[in-house]
Specification:
Layout: H1 10-18, H2 26-36, E1 41-44, H3 51-62, E2 73-76, H4 80-93, E3 101-104, H5 110-119, E4 123-126, H6 128-136, E5 147-151, H7 153-156, H8 162-171, E6 177-182
Parallel strand pairs: 1-6, 2-4, 2-5, 3-4, 5-6
Length: 188
């Protein structure tokens, strides 16, 4: 299926074309319509099949640019490397959209990340530890989250991350779209 058959706006289609993509992968073809319909979902696909675009494109499509500084989409990643990679993909696919994406992760100075938040943020890509740290310091709230994405959800829901995930979900509205993507997922 071609991307122009997935009901994405021209700005996003232009960015996809500039990135060199024409055909959606199976995970993108199946996930994008479900996300655009506002439904919760779990997407399972092997590494390298385009899972990031499968959630980034519908998020970029669904969020309208606003003047208010309200974080409306939250993407949680288990590692700083994955968070940075996801952030770069949002920048690539959203290059023609007036939406701001900020990336928070440990192992870097907080100052630049805090300054980026204060300049405005519609989409927040973060690792759990740094997110909790800066939220507890009062630099932002998650009161307006409409979409929650757990990337590598199997790792995000294992025992090591579970306490942080409970803290984070307590900070965001109960009424939201929740999507999980992973290469593997245990049945439970």
């Amino acid at each position: 299926m071609r991307f122009n058959e997935l009901n994405l706006n021209k700005d996003i289609l232009d960015a996809i074309k500039k990135a060199g993509y024409e055909e959606a992968t199976p995970i993108q073809e199946k996930s994008i319509p479900v996300m655009l319909a506002g439904r919760d979902m779990i997407g399972l696909a092997q590494t390298g099949t385009g899972k990031t675009a499968a959630f980034a494109l519908p998020i970029l499509e669904m969020l309208e640019p606003r003047r208010k500084n309200q974080i409306r989409a939250l993407v949680l990643s288990p590692t700083r490397e994955l968070a940075i990679q996801t952030f770069e993909n949002f920048k690539k696919y959203g290059r023609y959209r007036k939406l701001r994406t900020v990336c928070l992760y440990g192992g870097a100075k907080k100052g630049n990340q805090i300054n980026a938040l204060y300049r405005g943020c519609d989409i927040l890509v973060a690792t759990p530890g740094r997110l909790i740290d800066l939220a507890n310091e009062g630099h932002f709230t998650l009161d307006h989250i409409q979409i929650l994405v757990l990337d590598e959800a199997d790792r995000m829901l294992d025992m090591g991350f579970l306490p942080d995930m409970k803290r984070i979900t307590a900070m965001i509205p109960e009424t939201r779209q929740t999507v999980m993507f992973s290469a593997t997922m245990e049945k439970k």
